[in-house]
Amino acid sequence: MGKLQAFEIAFDKKKEVYSPGDSITGTVTIKVSQPLQCKAIKVNCNGFCGITSKVNDTSWTMEEQYFNSTLSVADKGTLKQGEHTFPFKFLIPATAPTSFEGNYGKIIYRVRAFFDTPRFAKDYSTEKPFYLLSLLNLNEVPDIWGTCSSAVTQQFTYMLVKTGTVVLKAHTDMKGYTAGQIIQVTANIHNQSGKTTGNMAASLMQRVTYETKKPTHDVRTIAEVEGGVVKAGKEVEWKEQIIVPPLPQSSLAGCELIKIEYFVKVNLKSPEVQLTLPVHIGNVSLDKKLHPSKKAAPPSTEDTPASTSTPDTSASASTPTLPPRPAPKPAPRPAPRSRMSSHNSPSAPSAEYHPGAEGGTPMNDDFPNKRQSQLVSPNAFSYAPGLFFPQSQLPSGPAAVPSGPPFSGSAGATAPYPVNGASSMPTPLIVPPNYSTSAYPQEAPPSYDESCNT
Known about the structure:
Blueprint: E1 4-11, E2 17-18, E3 23-32, E4 36-38, E5 40-51, E6 62-74, E7 77-79, E8 82-91, E9 100-101, E10 105-116, E11 124-129, E12 131-132, E13 148-158, E14 162-172, E15 176-178, E16 182-191, E17 200-210, E18 216-226, E19 235-243, E20 258-268, E21 273-282, H1 313-318, H2 448-453
Parallel strand pairs: 2-12, 15-21
Antiparallel strand pairs: 1-3, 3-8, 4-7, 5-6, 5-10, 9-10, 10-11, 13-14, 14-16, 16-19, 17-18, 17-20, 20-21
């Protein structure tokens, strides 16, 4: 190099990877063997994107610049013999995209230094690249949650005459991955033909689009796994895994000339059937804790008892809070004694009949009917329209719960149904007959009129 023995750029802490918004600092070192005149020493930091239509060509057909800053570290003068160091500092814009190198274009960041000498003398220059990484957080990508699925039906002809159909369905376990993660691929192949298919395969593909006047698409296979065949008339489910290697991220935010996409291609070798499953490659993996959970639906109260816990029996009977709710008007049809036989039902409601059941005192566990699962209030049965019973007439204390024979269809009833619609007449407190001591079914119980008259 003659008089100039060293001309180098060094970054502080030997750092080479930066993020948008960072400050890049370093020094320019110049070592001369004898005094050397200079017009100026300048340091430049720039970032740009260049694309072309030829592979590995640096004669860019289109360029896009992100920033370009120049700093003068020394003015006109003479450098003495020895080593000289000049510091520099630049600020990287927050909108700069991630570094990238492809077959038809690049996103480049570099620091260059220029040593300008007097006229007719030799100028010197040097440069040092650095890399910019703008992290892609997959959790911020729209519509990233869930699985990615697709299906295709392909008809084909074989043996020049016969026609067959193949149905191919496939899905991935997620839509976004980072380097080192595993893509779970599940495919379902239904061979509805009389010919055995070729091998099935799944590939992780990268497609880079360079936005020239006529866009250039560079598609290449990153990783591929292969499976077996599907025999004629058979349906097979195939599961495979693909490990994601270190790759450029899907999004080059801030770059308008280069677009990167990834997808999983699932295909059959013969007949040629394939489908694609788009995926994202990022730097920050998906966090299940950030998954948008569905809002819990409010519990339905239509089919739920008023009390789902076992309340205190004495407290619920002795402290009524609301008056009894009238039930719909019944239509009783008491049958005459002369028409009743040993096969007729008793006049009281059956054990499975619970009109207007509401929450309250729990049912007795000794009841043989296992279908009784609701909590039933003693005040919920046998009220007729027009009859009102003040709360003062309700029994209090433990007597509110019948402790006699098993449930006979009107447990806790306070009055029978009215006769001939006489709803305005005062009705005394009448307890239904005790059927546990009757000879039923050998002997029919007394009719409704007789039980009221007695």
